[in-house]
Amino acid sequence: MGPFPTMSASTMNIGTTANGSTKGSNGSVETVRDVICGASKYNAIPLWPQMVKYNPPQPNPKCVPDIWRYDEVRPYLVRAGDLVKEKDAERRVLMLGPYTTDTLYAGLQLVMPNEIAPAHRHTAFAVRFVIEGRGGFTAVHGQRIQMNAGDVILTPTWNWHDHGKDGSGPMIWLDALDLPLFQFFPVHFVEHFKEKRYPAVDADTSQSPIVFPWAKMRRELDNVNGDWVTREYRKADGSYVSKTINPSAERIAPQTFTASRRETTSCVYHVIAGAGESKIGERVLNWKKGDTFCIPSWYKYQHTAGHQETVYLYRFDDKPMIEALGFYVYEDSDGIIHREA
């Protein structure tokens, strides 16, 4: 006899009728519908009616290609600066979504002159791309970093941080966080500091490992020959800046286009300069400076620059996580699918 007693049909209150049908405590089970309805009463859900849902032939993201036009959204964000007082909003943000892709969150954040977005820390990793304004700063775990248009600033996991603004006019930046992941991994924490500001000193942005000045990235893009150039923001040792989010920048010469891409990463683009269009699946999005748009996983896409000026794009994607999990797949120009080990 094994370590567990054997349960008979009578012990489980399940038997067989004279005609071979199964009979349980709730009556006979003679049809497939009886199985589905009966099992569902005990929170046991049959897989076979929805097999394709859980095992699709190819990726089926919930999000769809979309665009947020800066000249349409900005007036509401700035007006929120007048109507939503500092004391009433820990962070004054318009979310682009609420989740911009299935794994990435983007939001436009605003700080007005002489305001402080109070110090807190959280599990989520954040990347800030500065869109406009002067005199703004973010303080990250003791480093006060001046914000300049085009700069990329990291807020690593569980680092105290606050934001502020001196001078006149609004300070606006694009937030990138991995918040959607916490739908699937319910492990997110937030802690508020006892004071509005965490103690910090001015940092040398040319030396800080969490700051990537736009001037430096633009030089790198411009110093490479070719109509289309892309560069990732990386740590000094060449590794990704985080385990979940990968920021990068692209340059596209006027009247030229990028390669057509299709991959299992999803991404968000922000237009730093120039104008053009992107074909994403069957949809074409026209964009210009300040606009932000998203590309879901496994949608084929291609960017085309307009006729007048060079296009510069900022991008962030989820490639570090997708690669680490062994999920990265891409399609080459010949339509051949490749899986990276």
From TrEMBL:
Domain Cupin type-2 spans what residues? 108-175
Which keywords label this protein?
A: Dioxygenase, Oxidoreductase
Chain intervals for the UniProt region annotation (Disordered): 1-28
List compositional bias (Polar residues) regions by residue number. 7-28
What is the superkingdom listed in this entry's lineage?
A: Eukaryota
Record InterPro entries: Cupin_2 (IPR013096), GDO-like (IPR047183), RmlC-like_jellyroll (IPR014710), RmlC_Cupin_sf (IPR011051)
| Recorded GO MF terms | dioxygenase activity
The protein here is known as Cupin type-2 domain-containing protein
Q: Which organism is it from?
A: Periconia digitata
